[in-house]
Amino acid sequence: MHFKDYLISLNLSNQTINTHMKNMGIGMPIDDFKEDKLMSFIKDEKYTLSKQKALISTASKYRRWKVLPNDALLIELRKLNDALITGQRKRTDAMVVPDITELENKMDMYYKQERWLEYSVMFLLLTFNTRNMDLVANITSDKHLLNDTENWLYVRKNDVVYIRNKYKTVERYGQKKDIIKSKKFHRAVSHINHLLVDLNNLTNSVIKITGYNESTVMKASVCSNNNLKGISKISKNRGTSMGTISSSYDATKC
Question: Is the pTM here over 0.85, yes or no?
């Protein structure tokens, strides 16, 4: 069995498998019995913390497949997770968080101005607490065009089915499918062929539409739903744990 076959056996998405295989090509000393050289390679300052985490994830899976020592990698992975969460919390604590009403008013303005793309993006951000990736979606009324690899807005006679196959935590939560019965949203998406297009500028696209980045919109939603029921709903919508929401978006500092 090749390493790629092993990754496939883990039921990882094609995108994740491709990322692991790409990481394998950068020259990590991954076959050494001891982990010292590998750790030094990964912790080079030229790699961001997020990149280090990705490399450790690849190396850890490879060494598990090869039955090589893996403990130091797992310890470092936990440290990186803690550091990334702390960094995210510091950034969100420093945010100037808009009142949710301000965002809803902007969404309503887009509808009145018949700016259908902007309205649709705002609607999904505020209703489903999406990440940027979730907003890359095709729009169709033809059921036969749907697939299990892309995100879709399937427009039916009286509602819209929002299908998410590509989002950050799909491996844990699987495909997400939500039925949207809003007449305004139905009208809006009936005028456009797609939502955002992934051209490596999704963050800028969201900022241009909302005036804020996705994390700030998310913090506004957390602050306006600061109770067990509200956070539980956000958790389900976004595909993330309540613990992650609590650690990354501290509602006590709204």
Answer: no
